[in-house]
């Protein structure tokens, strides 16, 4: 269909505005991350949108180099929180994907565990805040507080619904004829699952795992409640980048924020095709 | 009612030329079938007439009016889609009323016209049913009714019978033809099925590779194909074409079929004119139905490859030296696979085509 | 000689065996997920119920199993009913939902409509517009925290546009803080609506849109009579997802305002969080959490029942 020129002009104008609004916060943080102390401390009329003398000082600072301008060095560097975020989100993804994939296959093929879908939907519905009291009590009891594996375990449970629903829709779409052919060849059901189905599902598995990883990596509240010092994750640690002495360390926060923001954005673009499926629990497969 | 005129139409999709150059006039009130194999550009032509796609160059006229730049919303053609595109979230009644409603026709008038068209198309019992689960013949009538209710001057049908099973198709064909007579609209009907085109259309436009090959009445297209493509495409089986060279013997022009022998003297006018122009290499064409058995050493000498006997007729597959062909007989014939056959086409049935251009060497 | 019946019986047994093996494998496969759900759902909920009936706190010096000694005759639930701070947190949460979700829906729908057909640069713009939803919400919180400082870029832009020096203290004014939080939420989650609604729009059958156009429907008529009804299920899903997620709003909000100034932006999650970490009145928190959980479950149950009923009515 031919569109009038006026519509095209309007479309580009509207999209340009939306893109600008989308990018301003991201651009601002990126700019702050590369500003020297004097620039990120500037306010009001002295603000600069573009770093005048770009520097990596903020990144050096969060990894332990003392700042001459601030006359401080960090007591704890960002290295451990980054490690904590990686470990907890990574192993959380492993747990969710392992349990979720197996259960999805069981349900998709053998109609086992009929109560699971609804239970998992409900799990997703609840605000994590509302189940945290017993979790905190249990985690104290099991000595899982302030450990990366304690965090990974709860992440695995919280994102299990996503892993399960995503993989279930993928298994539902997977042609059974292929499995049946292997069964006729004398493979056991479980071997077929391991040796035939899973390898052929490598791509959906990878995108589901990335999706789940983004969700785990994005958590703030649970880490805030279950970690405090030793294994604080990036967002929790970020709050410590200010004090009564130094004030808000915007440059350092921006630098760390950038480090935290980059992996999920890249992963998200990589799995763009499956985002809708993941977000709608497979109700929409586009 | 309105005639349709396509003038110098071309359509490119990137580097692909869907329509190379097309001029076509559809008369007022005519039923024209646009016939061709899939990918020949017939659906694109239809979409351009409806305004769904713009032509790359060329004009579309409805009567005197140039509608090339009129958007599809206001072109006002009735269109029946291959899958009918029924609004399945609406009732049958809402589907029928749609075109009137969006035009702002007052409610009593809508009710009246819906009732009238439903009556006419025998849809009255289904009016308040949801349209999602109706049988295909009702869906087809609904699709036609939905377009017909706004009384378009032009009706376009895009392979409306391709989703219907073979048994039902005959019924639908009659029904469609009947409807067209009632509505008296200009109808363009896209199909790849020559039987549909032959039985329903006033005229047939044959397309191939984005080029209009021939326009004519069904019999005209059948009897006097304009070129080799039409000759082979129309008819089931298509026309036999044997390579031949023209030569003059005793003042008569004959076609030398090589190993298969020499034809009888050809009718004078066209063959002679062609020969005079220096055209020697031709296709010697004749319908399989126009063959009769001849005595040995007469007619076309061929060897029989196999024979299909299908009750009412007998199809003989033969090999005539440089080309294979088929012969259709109304009765059984004393031939057998592997044997020799001598057959002769009726003089009036012989058609010649220029082998270098593929065009018919006609009376004109 | 084996009779026909015997052969059939053997076959039936074999099939039965295979069936049983399949069922067992299905059970094994779903077991880990079942255990995890049990671990997070059933046992903790029982514990939550138990604690909610007491005034137990981690500072009470007793293990949680001894909480019965602090039984308080449903005082937690009775207090909740008259706790003004709870009711205002609930209302505030609903207000956030009432502002953010419709805004995200309308903006997302408008963008989706612009992206319905092809144009130059579509893929790049699409990828850019999806970025906010992938930014870690806590980081987004810091972004907007920086943007809304009184000496920050938002005021800077406002100054440039208005020509005066604007120095609004966004985050320390109760209603402005509310707006800032809503802006951050809309910025982050409009892309999700856009993504889902665009998928929905592209799923509307092209033939039907063309048929409507040929029947004389203009764009708006097509939108109302074909696109919206066809997208109904998807719109319900998109709204449901955002309503549920928005109800839990915490990360961006807590980092930007910590529920402040005062309790001006305190939503349910922030309220519960503060009770948990500052007041340490875990018995009370458990009671609130249970009330929230039960209300949500009932709401979900009603929604699913209605949906099923509608589907049955439609078929």
TrEMBL record, chain A:
Major site of localization recorded for this protein = membrane
Can you supply one Gene Ontology CC term for this chain's record?
plasma membrane
Q: Which UniProt keywords are given for this protein, alphabetically ordered?
A: Cell membrane, Membrane, Transmembrane, Transmembrane helix, Transport
Give the stretches traversing the membrane: 12-34, 82-107, 119-142, 148-171, 192-215, 250-271
- Where does the protein end up? Cell membrane
Give membrane topology per the record: Multi-pass membrane protein
Sequence ranges assigned to domain ABC transmembrane type-1 in this UniProt record: 82-271
What the entry lists under Pfam families is as follows: BPD_transp_1 (PF00528)
The record's annotation in PANTHER family points to:
INNER MEMBRANE ABC TRANSPORTER PERMEASE PROTEIN YCJP, MALTOSE TRANSPORT SYSTEM PERMEASE-RELATED
Q: What family name appears in the similarity comment?
A: Belongs to the binding-protein-dependent transport system permease family.
* Protein name (record): Carbohydrate ABC transporter permease
- Species for this entry: Devosia nanyangense
Lineage, uppermost ranks: Bacteria, Pseudomonadati, Pseudomonadota, Alphaproteobacteria, Hyphomicrobiales
From TrEMBL, chain B:
- Which InterPro entries does this entry report, sorted A to Z? AAA+_ATPase (IPR003593), ABC_transporter-like_ATP-bd (IPR003439), ABC_transpr_MalK/UgpC-like (IPR047641), Mo/tungstate-bd_C_term_dom (IPR008995), NA-bd_OB-fold (IPR012340), OB_MalK-like (IPR040582), P-loop_NTPase (IPR027417)
Tell me which Pfam families the record gives: ABC_tran (PF00005), OB_MalK (PF17912)
Name of the protein described by the UniProt record? ABC transporter ATP-binding protein
The membrane spanning regions, by residue number, are none
Highest taxon, organism lineage? Bacteria
Write down the PANTHER family for this protein, in alphabetical order.
MALTODEXTRIN IMPORT ATP-BINDING PROTEIN MSMX, OSMOPROTECTIVE COMPOUNDS UPTAKE ATP-BINDING PROTEIN GGTA
Kindly state which keywords UniProt assigns to this record, in alphabetical order: ATP-binding, Nucleotide-binding, Transport
Membrane topology type: Peripheral membrane protein
Q: Which organism is it from?
A: Devosia nanyangense
Q: Where in the cell is it found?
A: Cell inner membrane
Q: Which SUPFAM superfamilies match?
A: MOP-like (SSF50331), P-loop containing nucleoside triphosphate hydrolases (SSF52540)
From TrEMBL, chain C:
Q: Where is the ABC transmembrane type-1 domain?
A: 90-303
Per UniProt, subcellular location reads as: Cell membrane
Q: Which InterPro entries match?
A: MetI-like, MetI-like_sf
Per the record, the major location class is membrane
The record's GO CC annotations read: plasma membrane
- Statement: the UniProt record of this protein carries the keyword Transport: yes
Q: Which UniProt keywords apply?
A: Cell membrane, Membrane, Transmembrane, Transmembrane helix, Transport
The record, for CDD domains, names: TM_PBP2 (cd06261)
Asked if the Swiss-Prot or TrEMBL record annotates the protein with the keyword Mitochondrion, the reply is no
Q: Which SUPFAM superfamilies match?
A: MetI-like
Any one GO BP annotation for this protein: transmembrane transport
Coiled coil spans: none
**Gene3D superfamilies assigned:** MetI-like (1.10.3720.10)
User: What membrane topology is annotated for this entry?
Assistant: Multi-pass membrane protein
Top-level taxonomic group: Bacteria
Pfam families registered for this protein in UniProt: BPD_transp_1 (PF00528)
> Membrane-spanning regions, if any?
27-51, 94-116, 128-148, 154-171, 178-199, 219-241, 253-276, 282-305
Similarity-based family: Belongs to the binding-protein-dependent transport system permease family.
The name of this protein is: Sugar ABC transporter permease
Q: Which organism is it from?
A: Devosia nanyangense
